[in-house]
Structure formats: C-alpha cells, structure tokens
Amino acid sequence: MERRDFIKRSTWASAATLLPITKFPLARKPKFKMGLQLFTIRDAMAKAPIESLKKARAMGYEDLEIYGFDPDRIGYYGYRAGEFKQILDDLDLTVSSGHYNFSSYFDKPEDELKAYLDACIKGAQILDKPYITWPWLAPEFRTLENFKVLSGKLNWMGEQVKAAGLGFAYHNHDFEFTDHNGQTGYDIILRETDPDLVKLQMDMYWVVHSSNSTPQELIAQHPGRYVMWHIKDMDKVSRDYTELGNGSIDYVKMLSQIDPDALAYYYIEQGGNFAHNDMQSIADSATFFKENLKKYL
Questions:
Q1: Phi and psi at residue 235, in whole multiples of 5°?
Q2: CA triplet 153, 186, 142: central angle to 5 degrees?
Q3: Over the stretch 179-222, which tens digit does the pLDDT of each residue have?
C-alpha cells in the first residue's frame, strides 16, 4: 500500500471515537471549506502533530490556519515547509493562512522585520498558502501612537506580501477596541491602512466581547475587507471561550444576517476552557457547526 493511501485510510479509523454522528445533509456542497485554527489544539499538536491532523481531518476539517513558524529552518511543527506540505497533501488538507510572530519585531530595526517577513513569504509559498496574518500586538505597544506606527508597518508589509503574490491581513483581539478618549486602535487601523494591501481577519468572539459594533455592522461598513473570520463561542457565565453551541453567541442569527461576499476563509477556534480536552472540543464544535451553521457558508 502506498504511503499516501495508508495515511488517508488510517485518518478515518484513528478518529472514529471522536467523530460524532451528524445530521448535516451530505448532498449539499458548501461554498467554503470547513476551517480550523490549529492553535486550538496546540497541546495535541505539540505531542503528536500528524496524528492530531489525521483526527481533525476525520472530523470534517478541510482547511487550516497555522501558527508556530520557524524562520531559521523555514518550517512548521518540527518539519521543514516542504515536508509539512507533503503531510498536508497526503491527508487532503490545505492551509490558507498563518499567524506569525511579527509583534516581537515591532520595536526592532525595520530591516529585521523585513528579513523575517521574507522568511514568512518563503514558507507560505512552499505551503501554497494564500494569506499571511499579523495576529497580535504585545501589551507594551498598545498606545494610540503605536497603532499609527503599526498601520504604517502593515501597509509596507502588505505591499511586500502582495508583490510576492500573496495576501496580507490583520487579526483583532479585544485590546484594539479599548477606548482612548473617544478613539480606538481599531479606528486607526481601519482609517490608516490601505484596503488593497491590508485585509482584515475578524475574530467574531472578540468583536462581540469587546466592541461597540457587531460583526454584521463592521462587515457591512467595510465591504471587501473581511476576507477571513474566526468563529468561536463565549461562555454564558465567565465570557471565556467555549465549544460552539454551548455559549451565548447566536451564530445562527449572526451568519444569517451577513453577506459572505468578501469572505475567502473561516476558521473554527477555541483558545482554551475546554469542557474535556482540545480534541474533543473541536469534534463537538464541528458537529454543531455542520448541523447548524455550515448552511450559511
């Protein structure tokens, strides 16, 4: 038996205990692949990356957003980018975005950030990954003036990424919506970045959690910018993360009100607070998503 056939067959068997029965109609072909942000299962990936990917694929996940880039080896999860791409191909998985550690270069010389970005571009091209995403800004940099500096960096980085044939995006958390005398960091990013160079990845949980706007409103107000979404639920009591369907965010209502015209990719995510463990949580979220939400996407 060839290696690729073996991996694919073992994928379905290895995750059988985690794969719940779904009522989702198999005849319908959704517009988008069901995506997973791998940070959700970071503990499992640290212990057994290939086995974890097999199980995720068996649950129905088809597309990934990755993290944990090694710029020295141009690698991911202990594998060089080319080796990791072969693993993904064998499992019939794609990668459409990656979160990279740009924040650690925020106050370093520009040439260091450019060199790191060059390495990120090389890795993305090897994986055939359409987007590179800036995911985080460290607490010590979260001033209005630094959001202006950030916007300038995002613009030239977006230009460099676009010249390489890829897309560039910024991912929000809660801190971008902190009020600074009537202005927020997110206001600055929206106003001072070039929409043609810097797209946006909306974390819907954090928008609901901390913004004065709803995801529906932001997407309608900025057509064409929100090319990626993070979909995760909010615990009804603690407001921490929770499995899809267990929390307070009414995604049926939300997704039914959004035109996904600009959307290219979405990722189910849960940063922690698992009911049992990370792998069971992505199985439970996948089941809820397929039964209740996938019809909108």
A1: -55, 135
A2: 65
A3: 999 999 999 999 999 999 999 999 999 999 999 999 999 999 99
The pTM assigned to this predicted structure is 0.90
Rounded Cα gap, residues 110 and 108, in angstroms? 6
Classify burial at 187, counting beta carbons within 10 Å of its beta carbon; exposed 0-12, middle 13-18, buried 19 or more: middle
Q: Is 235 exposed, middle or buried (0-12, 13-18, 19+ CB in 10 A)?
A: middle
Q: Which amino acid is at 229?
A: W
Cα Rg of the chain, angstroms: 19
The residues of the chain scoring below 50 in pLDDT are: 1-28
Assign residue 244 a region: left if phi > 0, alpha if psi is -120 to 50, beta otherwise? beta
pLDDT at 29: 55
The string of DSSP codes covering 188-244 is HHHHHS-TTT-EEEEEHHHHHHH-SS-HHHHHHHSTTTEEEEEE-EE-TTT--EE-T
**How many angstroms separate the CA atoms of 146 and 114, rounded?**
18
Give which of 5, 100, 84, 92 is closest to 45, Cα–Cα. Answer: 84
Taking the domains of the chain in order of start, what are their residue ranges? 3-13+28-135+204-296
Please provide the CATH number assigned to the domain covering 3-13+28-135+204-296.
3.20.20.150
Which of helix, strand or coil describes residue 168?
strand
CB 104 within 8 A of CB 112: no
What is each CA distance from 52 to 43, 84, 203, in whole angstroms? 10, 14, 24
List, for residues 262-285, the tens digit of each pLDDT value: 999 999 999 999 999 999 999 999
